[in-house]
Design a protein that fits this description.
By secondary structure, the protein is an alpha/beta fold. Helix content is about 30%, strand content about 20%. The strands form 2 sheets. It has a 7-stranded mixed sheet. Strands 1-2-3 form a 3-stranded parallel sheet, covered by helices on one side. The protein starts with a helix and ends in a 14-residue tail after the last helix.
Length: about 270
């Protein structure tokens, strides 16, 4: 609401152009009507489980609503980073620059993981496979992915590792971590499969609920997040959390769009 009010204030003060810089796009995960509106387990406990299709598609598409609100408030341009689904750009009729944390992540891996050449980039779910293959190609290393398998609707998903991490450094890469259940489970799976060390690199560290406690107990060497969400408090509570500063990326994107230069250089390079 503050952002919308500020955009509107600039607009009615006759600003020629208003650009909203939103490092972590709100409600980005709510980008489609999901199959079920609640937990699968909850649905299967109900007596009418055969009719669970009736409970599908009753969720909001909040990302579209946020896009509409920003446009109506008067934003002319959006700069954001690592959208949960890049199709969210299509919710807008105004230009959206979706920056990538990937160049900064590659730089961090090369500088901070001594034996990165003997590493394996791992995606904790099938959805992040594209991001992982892109990073693995740039580093010229192997990649693996973890596939969640459900035997029955009400059974807990078992994780299946596809790929070989034995005697390698495993680097888990995902776009966001909320309660960290998936990445912690994935880390255990990788250690079982013979990985020597496990790092997690996540763009948006939300860390809600028991997340920090789970990271403290988990077998990570480090959990690396960018500062699209402020991390100072989390870093005090957990020594494993490290931060990549992406403010320079946004600063350069703002400078380039203001001067009418190309922003695509930032998609594959770090400006510092």
């Amino acid at each position: 609401m503050e952002l919308l009010i500020m955009i509107n204030a600039c607009k009615i003060a006759s600003a020629s152009r208003v650009t909203a810089v939103i490092p972590c796009f709100p409600y980005a995960r709510q980008d489609k009507k999901d199959k079920t509106s609640g937990d699968d387990e909850e649905l299967t406990k109900r007596p009418y489980k055969n009719y669970d299709w009736k409970f599908r598609s009753r969720a909001p598409i909040s990302a579209k609503l946020v896009a509409n609100m920003l446009s109506v408030a008067g934003a002319d341009h959006i700069i954001t980073m690592d959208l949960h689904a890049s199709q969210i750009q299509g919710f807008f009729d105004i230009p959206v620059d979706n920056l990538y944390a990937e160049p900064a992540v590659l730089k961090w891996i090369r500088e901070n993981i001594p034996d990165w050449k003997n590493s394996c980039i791992v995606s904790p779910d099938a959805g992040g496979a594209k991001r992982v293959t892109s990073i693995a190609d740039r580093l010229n290393v192997e990649f693996a992915l973890i596939h969640k398998e459900r035997k029955k609707a009400n059974e807990v998903a078992s994780m299946v590792l596809v790929g070989d991490v034995k005697d390698r450094v495993a680097i888990l890469v995902d776009d966001m971590a909320d309660t960290c259940g998936t990445v912690v489970h994935a880390a255990d799976k990788l250690i079982e499969a013979g990985a020597t060390k496990v790092y997690a690199i996540l763009t948006h560290g939300i860390f809600s609920g028991p997340a920090v406690e789970r990271i403290n107990k988990a077998r990570f060497e480090a959990v690396v997040v960018t500062n699209t969400i402020p991390q100072d408090a989390h870093m005090k509570e957990c020594s494993k959390i490290q931060c990549i500063d992406v403010s320079m990326m946004f600063a350069e994107a703002v400078r380039r769009t203001h001067n009418g230069e190309s922003v695509s250089y930032l998609f594959s390079n770090v400006p510092y």
